[in-house]
Amino acid sequence: MKPTIEDMADWVVQALDAAGQESTIMVGHSMGSLVAFDVAARYPDRVTSLAMVGTSMPMPVGNLLLDNAEKDNHLAKEMINYWSHSPSAHLGGSQVPGTWMLGKLIRLLERAGPGVIYNDLLACEKYTEGLERSKNIQMPTLLILGEDDFMTPIKDAKALAETIPNSRTILIPNCGHAIVSEAPNDMLDALATLI
After folding, report:
1. Under CATH, which number does the domain 5-192 receive?
2. Residue 191, Cβ neighbours under 10 Å: how many?
3. Which uninterrupted H or E stretch holds 29?
4. What's the helix, strand, coil split of the chain in %, to 5?
5. Of the ranges 78-87, 88-97, 125-134, which one carries the lowest mean pLDDT score?
6. pLDDT digit string (tens) for 15-46?
7. Which end of the chain has less Cβ packing within 10 Å, N or C?
8. What residue spans of 25-149 are helical by DSSP H?
9. Domain ranges within the chain, ordered by starting residue
10. Residue 95 predicted with pLDDT over 80
């Protein structure tokens, strides 16, 4: 059986229990944002505030990407890498001197074991309960979005934000889905507003 977002959220809660952590600030990027959201929605007493980075809900995955990931074709990794970065990142722009963002991500994706990328994408595709569960999200919530994100549509993230009463959205200009590597300083500044 393939792991679901709910399975991953349950694992996070088990990790919190093992660490003796009663509650925490939950931060997640992309699929991790769905996991963080699900923890906050189903275990609200465990989350003091929530940050969802590079997110949308639902988080659909195109058939071309899903099919190539299922076959473990390298093309799936190339598509993720290409679509994750803004046009300026494709030209070599970086807040971190000496970092080749596209090279770094493709090498990271190549380290994934067989089936890992497919299972993760499938979990995102199948997570359909989110908007219904958003009514349980009462803690301060921050959505950090890249203006040029092609992987998670901003319109879907904004629709999610409208369903969460205590949410704010920060849009980072000239940034794609790879917010953590494309705009680390902007992301840290945004996260600091949540703490």
Report:
1. 3.40.50.1820
2. 17
3. strand 24-29
4. 55, 15, 35
5. 88-97
6. 999 999 999 999 999 999 999 999 999 999 99
7. N
8. 31-42, 63-70, 74-84, 87-90, 101-110, 116-126, 130-133
9. 5-192
10. no
